[in-house]
Write a sequence for this structure.
């Protein structure tokens, strides 16, 4: 699993979680939990996108769920 920051229109940051194996966990459930913590997000093209720059908080939260993450 990897996390990166991308910029969209008007320089708005998007935190993208990608490179995960969806057969090892329920992506919809993870996306739902992340949406509840970060207020907004979506699953698109096999990746989870969260509006804003959330790398630090996201690393902590994913560690609680026992995921290993590359930045």
């Amino acid at each position: 699993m990897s996390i990166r920051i991308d910029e969209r229109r008007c320089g708005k940051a998007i935190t993208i979680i990608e490179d995960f194996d969806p057969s090892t966990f329920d992506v919809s459930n993870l996306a739902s939990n992340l949406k509840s913590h970060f207020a907004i997000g979506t699953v698109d093209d096999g990746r989870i996108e969260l509006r804003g720059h959330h790398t630090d908080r996201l690393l902590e939260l994913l560690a609680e769920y026992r995921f290993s993450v590359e930045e």
